[in-house]
Amino acid sequence: MVSQMVFIRKWFEGVPYLVAASVFLLQTVLFKATAAQFVVSSVADGGAGSLRAAITGANGQSGPHSISFSIPGSGVRQILLQTGLPAITQPVTIDGTTQPGFNAFPLIQLDGTFVTDYSSGLKILSGNCVVRGLNFVGFGGEGIRLDGAGNNRVEGNHIGFRSSDGTLATNWLAGIAMIGSANNVIGGTTPGSRNIISGNAVGVYIGGGSYSNAVLNNYIGTTPNGTSILANNGVGILIESAYGNQIGGTNLNEGNLISGNAAAGILLSSRLCTNNVILGNLIGVDATGTAGLANSLDGVVLNDAAFNQIGNGTTQGRNIISGNVAAGVAFLSTNCTGNRISGNYIGVSASGLVKISNGDSGVVISSAPGNIVGGTTSGYGNVISGNSNGGIIVGGDGADNNIIQGNIIGANATGTAAIGNFGFGMNLVAGTNTLIGGSEPLAGNLISGNTRAGIQAIVGANRILIKGNKVGTDISGKQAIPNASFGIAFSTAGNQIGGTNSNEGNLISGNNDYGIYFTGASATNNLLAGNTIGTDVSGTVALANRLAGIGMSDCQGNTIGGTSIEARNLISGNGEQGMSLVNIRMSLIQGNYIGVDRTGTFAIPNHNDAGIGLYKCVSNVIGGSVIGAGNLIAGNTGSGIYCQDGGTNKILGNWIGVQAGGLLGIPNSLHNVVIEGSSGNLVGGVADGEGNVIAFTSGAGYDGVRVRSWFDGTKTINSTGNAIRGNSIFGNNGLGIDLEVDGVTLNDTGDADTGSNLQQNFPVLTTISGRYISVVKGTLNSKPNTTYLIDFYGNKATDTTGYGEGQLWLGFTSARTDSGGNVSFTVTLTNTVSVGQYITATATDPANNTSEFGLNISAAISIDNDHDLIPDDYESIYGFSATDASDAQKDFDGDGANNLAEFLAGTNPKDASDTLKLEQFKKLAKGMTMGFPTALGKKYRVEYSSTFGTNWTVLMDNIRGTGNITQVTDSSESAEGLRFYRVIVSDQ
């Protein structure tokens, strides 16, 4: 046989790895003889009884053969070779354990110190060979080279150091190399079958198309006891252009100890390196798994390698990848795709309870797309904790479409205490479409206890999906394991935190800074939906982020919440504001619960300043006019909404200071809405759904809406052009609307005063008649030759000052002053609902400066001449007879509800489409939602029963009529079965 061998030196991170390529030209069988047994009885390099002679003899006839040892003397027998041994061409077992006196350590040492070429200790060209119990040292090539044929076993050998005293005696290419060879087993499951492969250039090399080889139970890079370093000078195991190989396994004693090596523990390299599995190994720790024994670079590196598996989600398949100088696991290059890391402990001990840091991140994904860290099956998540430079980093061009699911990042294996990564739990610096968590029940990661943010994404990492995770809590979601900084911090675009499907919302609580923080001009077009921020997983107990639940600065175009119940964020219990927004533009905040529990019925306060604080913010929308757009902002220890030094924001359709339903109070402690040094804002509106409910401030003197100037340290900034229209403002301890100074600002002749909203004069009402047809007369003195909008409001009771709040918006008229600034007006308000006993009004000038409420005056009680329970003025509106009681029982529009029922429900008796009915049923993951039309001035109660017509139970009470469809959720377990529902309506 003639063999030509070429060696290629390849560099990775400054460390040379030796790669061998062989070309076999010709092999001829010269003769055939029967199997034989050969005995080595001499340490001589040749001649009778030598190993060389035994190999030559075995090659001369077909096997299988055996070569045993019986060399006289004691201790290690050194066979000091002068030239390389012949390649083995026939099946043979070379068994060093047969040497008399053998006891665990090899007594037969093959020493290649004086061999001047790149010969291997043994070069095996045949299949079905066994090499057992030998010591290979000092060869210019490999200790053992399996070349071509397969099904060989290499077990119980010491390779790369002298067994007698443990001193290094390097094999200069690899301890063991497999080139184009398959189905070999290196090691075995018994202590006696374990190879100690240390002190070589590379521990084990698998290349040249080798496949289906198993490396089991070896110590690679350590001393024989597995507690000290005896380094291979390069990687522990190098797999290159080889596929389907197994490093370790899931059966007892199959895992290798791969530690102490001078480069990476394991390196998988090249595009042809596919479908290899790494299972049950100790990588970077000692044999007990309790102390570090560092590989000098990463624990496991995949460079260009694709579709390989590290761990398999079982306890037996778990790799402990800890204590390494660099990363635990590194994925490198754009060709490194389709790989999975599952069920491993990375940065912690074998118990998962003690930190054994990797010197860099636990997992590095650099320019590598489409890999999976963790999984959605039980056990597939990794524990990635205790690492010195964060848990997971994703960076480099092309690091797209990676999936990170089911992991514990920064906590111990039980998810009950911190083993923080020193740095970010996850640091995303590049790549798009990274999925962190998911909607499957086990997809969410636990990202807690890290010394910086739980998740950070900076410019370069976009379109990230973060779903179903717990960030800052323990595994139960009931106790805090704080990330020392933000829960989630972003300065990138197009990301989604949470979602509207089941299990997509994140729990982001207990962190030592903001729960979520967005900053910078690049942080745009992000969506936050369905998250719980500042409470425990139940949404009923505070678990505060130390600062605001959500912070945003210097960015625009983001959306927080949405119009569906599923999009609602619960933002409550935080140490400062629910939301703190600084220099934010054109963002949308809708449908959230801020300062209350998940049901919207009791307070879980956000603390300081406000439920929502806007500072230098412009052109944002808080709420909206469509169904579900309004936020519930109640129970906060500051104001409901605080707007300072900005402008042109819209506050529409929100519920501020009330329970869900809008009639009972959950007070904000200060003013419900504060506009300070901010101009051009809109609070409410007269179109359907635009008005806010603003009620029940708790402290004396705290107003529904307070508009005032602000001194910024150098100058006073007035608040002007703030329109306050169409709202339901009632039950506040101060005024409904208060301009500038505390208390009623009385009108001045000609309205020449300045200040907030120019201290616009309010209308003076003089006469009201009727209840359902209200004829209102009044006057306004303000600026001359100017058209004003006069809004009218009804109240059941007057304010203690006598000046109104405005519980029910009744309508508006326009009035133009004369040259003296005076105008008189008469308006007929044709509401089909009770306006209560008092009416008040506001005036708004063409620049949108709205006044305080004017003095309340009382309304007359309507008359019912025919005693049909429908007042005469209501009957006049719809053309009924005020003297014919029978029309109360008629159904003019044929919708199934008679005219009296439509009057009581507040629906139009001449519009068949306007009727009180449950509709818009929608199935949820648990329970359902339903909707029904409501009328202004009415309140509603929804009840359910499991048997039609009896045993009705209240589902939701004190629901305020808005004039629009109102949605109600039944999320109880029993809602999964048969249920009947009904709606009961009454006057407010």
Average residue-wise pLDDT: 91
Q: Which structural class best describes the helix and strand composition?
A: mainly beta
What is the CA-atom radius of gyration, in angstroms?
Answer: 40 Å
Number of discrete helical segments? 3
Shape: elongated
SS strand fraction:
25-35%
The total count of strands amounts to: 85
The amount of helix comes to under 10%
Low-confidence runs (pLDDT<50, min 5 residues)?
1-33
Measured between the Cα atoms of the first and last residue, the distance is 103 Å
Main sheet summary: 23 strands, parallel
Provide a descriptive summary of the structure in words.
It is a single chain. The protein has 988 residues and is mostly beta strands. It is 2% helix and 34% strand. The chain is built from three helices and 85 strands. The strands form ten sheets. It has a 23-stranded parallel beta sheet, covered by helices on one side. The longest helix is centred in the first third of the chain and has 9 residues, at 51-59. It is elongated and about 135 Å long.
Task: Give the tags.
988 residues; 2% helix; elongated; disordered N terminus
Short overview:
By secondary structure, this protein is mainly β.
